[in-house]
Amino acid sequence: MDKENGQLSQWHSLVSDAEQLAGIQLEPDLESYLVFTLMRYLSRPEMTQRVLALDYLQAALSQGREQQHQLRDVGDQCLLYCGLFPRRAERRRVRVSYYVDLGRSAYRHLGDSRDPLSTLYTELALTFVMAMDVLQAIRNMRQEQRLDPLNNLELWQDTGSALAQQSLKQVTDATPQADPDSRRTRGKGRLH
């Protein structure tokens, strides 16, 4: 029990440090959810071998509690992919925002369900990018793990990621600007 409490405390400390680094303050319930998600999944290396779109489709075909569990798993795994393993998207020839959209959709469906945590899932759908930024800040604590400027630009354009924008500002004098001609309502931009 003490070992588990010690691990929990360490994860909370890591997430708090990452929030500070990213300049983000998650609500306490979201912070706790993120900590428990990290604890649950990081001991499961098979997670990185999943085809999340197929898992999402399988969840859509399921019903009841099984659907809720599958959607939660898809949302959680997308969040971890985006935050801790964003280069996997590149290897699979998709943008990180693909996983952002898939994860948000899974959480949004859970938010619309009768799940007792539906309010939390709605909040996760709305703050997905902030939670991703906190996870990427954990990743960035090791300098060699940072995303390159092009991937940061794409991530900022597609999602409005504040951490990606901050990373861009560190490597260029150009300032990302919102693109008023964008089809997406948030986040599209270019450097000026």
In words, what does this structure look like?
This protein is mainly α and 192 residues long. The chain has 2 domains: 2-146, no CATH class; 147-192, no CATH class. It contains 10 helices and 2 strands. The chain has helices spanning 2-22, 28-41, 52-61, 64-84, 87-91, 96-111, 118-126, 128-140, 149-159, 162-171, and strands at residues 176-178, 189-191. A two-stranded antiparallel ribbon has the order 1-2. Helix 1 (2-22) packs across helix 8 and helix 4 packs antiparallel against helix 6 (96-111). The radius of gyration is 17 Å and the shape is globular. The N and C termini lie far apart (54 Å). 35% of the residues are buried. Residues 182-192 have low confidence and may be disordered.
What is the rounded distance between the termini?
54 Å
Question: How many domains make up the coordinates?
Answer: 2
Question: Spans of 5+ residues with little confidence (pLDDT < 50)?
Answer: 182-192
Order of helices and strands: HHHHHHHHHHEE
**How would you state the average pLDDT, rounded?**
86
Gyration radius, in Å? 17 Å
The major sheet is characterized as: 2 strands, antiparallel
* Secondary-structure content class: mainly alpha
Percent helix among the residues?
A: 55-70%
Biased composition (Polar residues): 166-175
Region (Disordered): 166-192
